[in-house]
Design a protein that fits this description.
The protein has helices at about 5-15, 55-70, 105-120, 160-175, 215-225, 255-260, 280-290, 300-315, 320, 340-355; strands at about 20-25, 35-40, 45-50, 75-80, 95-100, 125-130, 140-145, 150, 180-185, 195-200, 205-210, 230-235, 250-255, 270-275, 295-300, 325. The chain has about 375 residues and is α/β, with parallel strands linked by helices. It has a 6-stranded parallel beta sheet with strand order 13-12-11-14-15-16, with helices on both faces. A 5-stranded antiparallel beta sheet has the order 3-2-1-5-4. It has a 5-stranded antiparallel beta sheet with strand order 8-7-6-10-9, with helices on both faces. Strand 7 and strand 8 (about 150) form a beta hairpin.
């Protein structure tokens, strides 16, 4: 739906009633991705697309029907070998489409209006919709801001469910991507009861890797897998090349501290300093530790770390700022190879983001899916003194 926000925002301001068809499931070679939408108003005007043309006619009629009876439906469209002329995707893929009406129901319209207004202003926010579950919940909508405030509900009196959905939406806002999630009707994290589409309007978080070394190449791949927009920065043009870092979104040749000072960062940004050279590390970390970013880590031995801390103190870095530095970088996984080291760094980034400890789950007694910041409680392993 976020692909047609400008038009839908105008429709809401004009007081139009309309139905929205949203791609909520994709399998195989489908022409449009998760969250793509088509909307139809009372006059029959249509905007957007869910399939690039293959099934638009059938989806258009579903939208018209939803405006008449007010019922939310999920319809599956796929290629039919038995009837090549049947309504379906000629590309061979399968899509599931949720069709909901946005009429006079106050909460639904308010949730849509809030989501569209945020998207128009390019503010981070999420819109959640029930796409599988009891008929009375299908299509129920919740608008969620990054701070957890929200508009709408997934059902009267379902406070625990709404709270759990808000938590899921905030996690996806943090990750910066749209996805489907499964949750129980009572709000527990056990899958099975409900499936929701969480459409996120936010750029992916940034990972900036300083130092174009072999460990950086592995970290770039892991960063992309985790959904980061990954930039590699190094002052040496012979090393900072596309051939060495084909998976990076951006490759910058510049002094690290100078680039960090001019690029955009936010509270989700992670900074990984792999330069392992004081002439790069000290001016870079002096800037990084003053910034409100999510994570600052630096590679090096414990001897290198001690020398680095001494130099940073001499450069005027305060103790409270130094306490934010993750060095030596990564969790103790016994890593040896660049790929294992990258996994170690990624594990620490995830633990920092969600308040994890890195402790084996076998040795803890807290819920696996606890709230961010809730401490882990160590348990006693049977048979071990």
């Amino acid at each position: 739906m976020l692909d047609i926000v400008q038009e839908l925002s105008g429709w809401l301001e004009e007081g139009r009633e309309f139905a929205v068809a949203t791609v909520v499931g994709v399998s195989g070679s489908a022409p449009r991705g998760l969250g793509a939408a088509l909307a139809v108003d009372r006059d029959g005007k249509a905007i957007g697309s869910v399939s690039g043309g293959c099934v638009e006619g059938a989806v258009y009629e579903l939208c018209r029907q939803a405006l008449e009876d007010g019922r939310a439906v999920v319809e599956r469209f796929g290629y039919s070998d038995e009837d090549a002329f049947a309504v379906g995707l000629t590309c061979g893929g399968i899509i599931d489409v949720l069709v909901t009406s946005v009429t006079a129901e106050a909460l639904v319209r308010t949730a849509f209006r809030s989501a569209l207004a945020s998207a128009v202003r390019d503010e981070p926010a999420a819109l959640t919709q029930v796409i599988r579950g009891p008929a009375e919940l299908l299509g129920k909508t919740l608008f969620v801001r990054p701070d957890g405030t929200h508009v709408g509900t997934h059902g009267d009196g379902r406070v625990a469910l709404d709270r759990a959905v808000v938590g899921q939406a905030r996690a996806l806002l943090d990750a910066g991507h749209t996805a489907t999630v499964e949750i129980s009707e009572d709000g527990s994290h056990c899958p099975g009861g409900l499936t929701l589409l969480v459409a996120v309007n936010t750029p992916p978080p940034r990972m900036i890797v300083f130092g174009a070394i072999d460990f950086a190449a592995a970290l770039v791949r892991v960063g992309k897998f985790l959904g980061y927009h990954v930039t590699v920065c190094d002052a040496r043009p012979v090393f900072a090349t596309r051939a060495r870092f084909p998976d990076a979104d951006d490759i910058v040749v510049d002094w690290p501290h100078r680039y960090l000072g001019r690029t955009s960062t936010d509270t989700r940004t992670v900074l990984c300093v792999l330069t392992h050279d004081a002439k790069f590390d000290v001016p870079l970390l002096r800037e990084a530790l003053r910034m409100p970013v999510a994570y600052v880590g630096a590679m090096g031995s414990r001897r290198t770390h001690a020398d680095r801390e001494r130099r940073l103190r001499e450069a005027g870095v305060e103790e409270a700022q130094l306490a934010r530095l993750r060095s030596p970088i990564g969790l103790d996984l016994g890593a040896r190879t660049p790929e294992e080291t990258a996994l170690s760094i990624a594990a620490e980034i995830i633990a920092t983001r969600h308040g994890g400890t890195g402790t084996p789950l076998t040795d803890t007694r807290t819920p696996i899916h606890r709230s961010a910041g809730q401490p882990a409680v160590l348990g006693t392993v049977p048979g071990v003194a």
